[in-house]
Structures are given as structure tokens and as C-alpha cells.
User: Fold this.
Amino acid sequence: MSVEDADTAIAGPDGVPLDAPYAMAADAVLGVLDVTPAQGLSARQAARRRAQYGPNSLRQRRAVSALRILVNQFRSPVVLLLAMAAAVALASAHWTEALTIALVLVINAMIGFFTEIRATRSMEALRVLGSPMARVRRGSQVRMVPARALVPGDIVIVEGGDVVGADIRLVEAANVAVDQSALTGESVAVDKDTAKVGDDAPVPDRSPILYQGTSVVRGSGVGVVVATGMRTELGQISRLVEQAAPEASPLERQLTRLSGQLMWLTIVIVIVIGAVGILTDKDPFVMIEAAIALAVAAIPEGLPVVATMALARGMLRMARANALVERLSAVETLGATTVVMTDKTGTLTENTLTVAEIVTASGRHALSGAAEAEEAPRPPGDEAFARAIRAMVLCTNAELGGDAGDANAEGTGDPLELALLRAGRRLGEERQALLARFPRVREEAFASETKRMATVHSADGGWLVAVKGAPEQVLAACAAIVTAEGRRTLTEAERAEWLERTEALALSGRRVLAVAGKSMPTPDAPVYEGLDFHGLVSLLDPPRRDVPEALQQCHAAGIRVVMMTGDHALTARTIAESISLTPDTPEIVSGDALKPLGELSDEEAETVRRADIFARVSPHQKLDLVTVHQRAGDIVAVTGDGVNDAPALKKADIGIAMGLRGTQVAREAAAMVLRDDAFGTIVKAIREGRVIFRNIQTFVTYLLSCNLSEVLVVGLAVLAAQPLPLLPLQILFLNLVTDVFPAFALGASEGEDDVLRQPPRDPSKPMLTRSLWIEIVGYGVLITVATLGALVIAERVLGLTGDALVTVSFLTLAFAQLWNVFNMRDPRASLFINAVTRNPFVWGALALCTGLILAVTYVPATAEVLHLVPPRTDAWLLVLAMSAAPLVIGQIGKEVSGWLYRRAHRQGLAGARSA
Assistant:
């Protein structure tokens, strides 16, 4: 049976289903799977179950072939229409035109192929994550086998440092804690035990289950495999990644719509011209030539090339700012973003537990933030504080690397204990130095029942105990309290006060430990009796330092930021308030209160959309939340770093993964990866996206106004029964040379300074607004009048005919289109100093195009192909004068528009002041 077919529910040999092993006693689970921990499965049982359930691997998704990607490059309406024009030219023996159009098609296809090709690697990354080795007991013998060979019923032995190879139900556990942040988003290691939980327990609260892809940070245990392959929790997430097909970007949708409109416009024009020709008994050969010229003139062949190049340059600029974009359209999508849905752990926070505060009877000692911690003074002569630090450093099993002065060094062991060691190092207590003074004799391991840990050390002829654990459990074992002055009896009223302090710290979203200790005469005496209470230690996953400023920029840009996390609501609220996630009090929704997407009413969906924080949410719920916002018309960016974020990253309009802390799964599912994990880099990328879209609007306006002028010049000549003023090859030359280079220069603009102080554009509005269409038509008409005017003057005043006459119309149109680039400036900008005139690419494009125009006019070989002849001096003067006319008139119009805008703006400000 293939893994694709191996979706049969797990059941025992007697057909008893294993639906919720976390809600069943360990013995009951073993009974259903017909296995004992001491014996394990036999080789024959394992082979039979592997045949029944398939290998323990995730479903492989076939990558899109390079051939299919190449074929897809020829499916756009513009390409199809050009192919039709090439076919007509070929059928009518216009070999040069047919060959040239075919060459254009090939160039466009190659650019699209090499820039857009990418394999879908999400599933490969998931398979790598789920392929460790496992220690298995089979036939009473322990052996190492690949995790792929695990089957339901296998007895697996786990220890600290192991990566879990399947979903395992614990039957024995000793001090087991698991880092499952990549799966659930929880920021701290989770204690695991063998006790069953309710059948409605969410994934993070299923304490007897070890999930595939998570890692054991401490302890040891024995468990039985209850799910493999696609039946594991990781497999369910990979299924969501498969189903979460990415939406087409706004730019892709709008360019597709524009291409379709141009295609139908071209067809209508060709039909009208053809009908006129038939009704007026025109030569069929002439009408075919006119149809080809019109088709070529109506289609902006350079549009896909320029759009691709502009987006590619945007990708390069973003890469220099530590944002790597995999898909070209994602660059522009960022500019349309209205909502950023972000994970908390590792994205808004450091994903590193830090001791925030030590509270003793002598006072509170804040240590929040690395900078403050390094400078935090150690209270002189404070016995309570000194003993609290000593106990929290001694009562650990973690090892901190680096030099004694490196308070941010990496280490091995429980993240919580590493945080304690780092705090101790900052305050001058090094674990190895303490152990040299107080050698460890024995340990009372942490147990989930007692929620305490103790270590016993030899000390000056006696024995010292260090204890840490849950405050309520540690306080219950304390008989005295250490103050700054010394030791005294702990009263019941004081015990209640310390429990209230613990609750207050917990309500602020912190994890709280109590530390205690005592001296005792023998090393074997009970450790949890008559303890001296030292104080409380609160820990926090601190927010990233760059986040508050980045959030302020998002607010100014009109972008909502929504937090999605697997942590508790109180923790999420604390982080949200510390970073100013929203200007107002954040609205919080817990995952257990979220209905499935299909059950949400319109009112409930709107309530969900207004929420600022979603706590304790599952991967499937994250996917639903993205869909809710997309259905409401939002352009959604999702950030994350864990396996649990992968489906939402792929479903979002733009998925953004953390490159340093992010899992491979998250990076492969996203369209953009941050190399520095800085939330502020997202803001820079959003600015770049907005600039790119505005640049695309500008060069599309430029291209369409130029193409419209070509259509009008040819169309009006045909309707007036005059010879064609432009030949198909001449139009193609203009579209591919004199249009493309200035358009690309416009696409390379750096943008205005206030781009992030403007609200996001309405994604429902078309790329070309009404005002832009007015500009397109206006400039197209001006260029047409200038070209036809030059043609008439050249024929009737200068007496030119044949190729000389066509040369004048060609040169006038070519230079009028070049000067038209200056009409693309913002009307609010200065006439001489603006984004266009400051752009060095514009001047380079004009110089290059002028040289190419002169070359094809004066080089005999190209002049013969394009039917051009070197013009006389008077013809050149006519060309220069008529080609400059649209620029002069256009700039007058820009100045008038700018004056009207400034006047309306002043009146608006005056009205606001009076109000």
C-alpha cells in the first residue's frame, strides 16, 4: 500500500479504533495495540502493520515539471494574440514580421520561465523534519531503526536530545519535557507524563503524547507509537499545507484583467477595420497588412518584460535589506497589504526565556532586558537575594557554554534552566564555580506530581539543599523565610501573600518559579521538609527590540497587525501591551471559542476580523483566520517560524518566514524569508512593494498612451483610405525598444518619501484608475495629432513621398513617445526637479533610444528592413518641432493639475482649522 493510500484509521488487531489515545489509560492503549512494553512487537507483527498502514513518511507531492512551467508562459491573452498576429503574417507571406513577432514571444517566455520557475519544496522539508532515528524494543531487544520504519504499536524509548519520530503515547515517564514550540507555538518546554486527559483536550494540553517532529529536552521515557505518517499531527499539518493553495497576487489578477481587456479591444479594432475595408472594396493584402499593424500596435509587448524587470529589481533591493523574495509577484503584494497576521514566539519575541525579576523578602530586583541585566547591581549584604541566586543556579541540569563573561552564550538542556544560568552569570554566580564549592551529591528529579526539583550538595562538613519548582508546592514545604537580615519563621499570612504575588506575576503573562533551600545533617534526609523560602523568579520571553517602532510605522501606514499564538491569552496580552500592538486596548479571542470556518455567521466573522489577538490557536484555525480576512477583501501577510505556521504562510497573499529561527518547513512554505528575523524588515519590504506598484502604474500609463497613439495613427489612416503611415515592423521596433527602455527606467524609481504615510490602496480598485485612463487617452491623442500633423506637413509642404514620408511619421512618433516620459511626473512635484528628472535611468534610456533610432535610420541594412531613409534637414526640424508639442502641452496640463491640487489642499486645511 502506498503512503498516499495509507489513510486508514489506526485500530487494534480486534478492530478496536484508537481515536483519542491521550484520553485513554496507558494500559488500555497497550491493550488495543496488542503489545507489552517489555516485549514490544515481533518482526512479523511489525511487517504486517507496515503493510497495513504504510511507511512512516509524509505524502510526497509531485513537483511541477519545468515543461509545464514553460508551457504556462504562453497562456496569457497577450501572448495568444501575438501568436495569432504571427500566424496571420506567416500565412500572408510576411516572413520578416512573422519571424520578429515569434522572436518577441520567445524572449518573453524565457524571461518568465527563468524568473518564475520554482519547485514546491514544503513537503520535502516536512519529510526531512520527520525522518530521525528511533530507539525501538522489538522482540524484547532494543535496536536503532529509521523513524520511517516505525509502525503503530512499536515500543519506543526516548531520552533528552531525541527528536520524536512518530506520535507516541507515553507509558513510562521520568522528568520528561518536550520542546514543541515549532508545532504549537508555545514558548517554553512542556512537561509530559503518563496520566490521561480529557478527550476534548487541545493539542498543547495532551500531556501523555509526544508529537512527531518535536524534541525531548530532558528526562527519559517509554512510549507506544499511536500514529504514523499522515495520521500524525505533523501529517495533518502537511495535509493543510497541500490544501492551502496560494492566492493569485493583486498584481497578477490586475495584469490578467488588463491583458484580457486589451485582447478584446484589439479584436474589436481589427474587426471594425476589416469591415470598413470590405465595405469600401479595399485590397485584401492591404487590409491584412493593416490588421497585423493594428494588432501589434494595440498590444504592449514590453509590458510583461518591464513588469518582470521592475519586480526583479525590487527583489534585489529587498535582498539587500535582508528580505529574500522567492516569487516575483510577492514584491508588489506587500505594497497592497492591509493586515499583517503575525506569530508571537520568535517573531514579536526573542523565543528565548529570560529571567525578568527576582522577588525576595528584601524587595524586587528587576532583570528584564539584556542591557539592564548586564548592569543590574547585586544588592550588597542581601542574604535573601544571594541565596535565591545560589539556589536557582545549583538546582539545574543544564550546561551553559561560552566564557564566564558571556551572559548570552548558548548551552544545552532545558531552556528554562538555561535562562536561570544566564541570569546567574550576569549576577556573578557561575554554575561550575558554585559546584566546585558545593559538589553535588544527589538529585531529586522533577516530577509532574510534586512539580519540584531538589539537589543535595556537600558544604563545609554539612549538606546543602537547593530547591526550585511551582510556588504553591515549594511554599507548602517551607517553614522559614530568609530576609536581608537573616532567617525567621514563615507565617501563614506571609505564605498567603507570596501566593498572591505569584498569581499577580502569572496574570502578567510570566512563568513563575519559587526557590528555597536548607542545611541538613545527613545527605539522605528528606529534602522537602522544613525548607527556607528564598523568593520567586519570574521569566519572560522578551519582545524584540525593533518591534515597537516597526508597529508604529505599520499603524501610520494604515496596516493592522494581528497576533496569532499558541500561548495563553494572558501571555499574549502582556506582550501585546509591551510592544503597543494596537493603539487601543487589544481585543482577544481564544482558540477554544473559535467556531470552524463553515459555521461562522457574517456577524461572527466580522467579530473575528476585528480581534487583535488570537491565543491558543491551532494550525487549522490559523488557516481559517487568514481565509476570514481574505474573504473580507483584505490583502493578508502572515509571518511565522514554526511548523504550525506553514499552512497559513502558504495560504496568505504573502507568507513571511523567519530565516534565522524559522524551521525549514516555514521557510519553504513562505514567499518571503527574513534573513535577520527583524519585524522592521517587513515594514521596509512593504514600502518597497508600494513603490513598485506605483512605478508599475506609471510605466503602464506610459506604455498604453504610446500604444494608443500607434493604434490611432494606423486606424485613422485606414479609415481615411490613406496609405499606412507606420509599417508593422516599425511599430514592433517602437514597442520593443523606444517603449521598453523608458518604461523600465520609470519602473526603477526610488519612490516618494511619504509613501509609508499613506493608507494602503484599496485592493478592489483597478490598477488603472479613472484619472490614469484620462492621462492615457490624453497623451495618446496628443501624440497622434502631432504624428499625423507632421505627416500632412511633410507631404503637402515639404513634398515628401514613399519611404521618406513614412520616415517622418516614424521619427515624429518615436521622439514624441520618448519625450512623453517626462509627462509621467507627479503633478504635485516641481516642473524641473521631480522623481522622473532625478532618475538617472531615465536619462540613460533616452540616450540609448535616441542612438538606436538614429542607427536604424542611417545604417543601410536596418533602414532597408524598416523601409526608412535618412531625412533631409527640413524634415528633421519638422520632426523635432512636432514631437516636442505633446510634451509642452502635457507639462502645461500637469502644472494646472498641480495648482488645482494645491489649492484644494489649502482649502481643506483651512476648513479643518476653522472646524
About this structure: The chain has a mean pLDDT of 81. The longest helix spans residues 873-914. DSSP finds 32 helices and 26 strands in the chain.
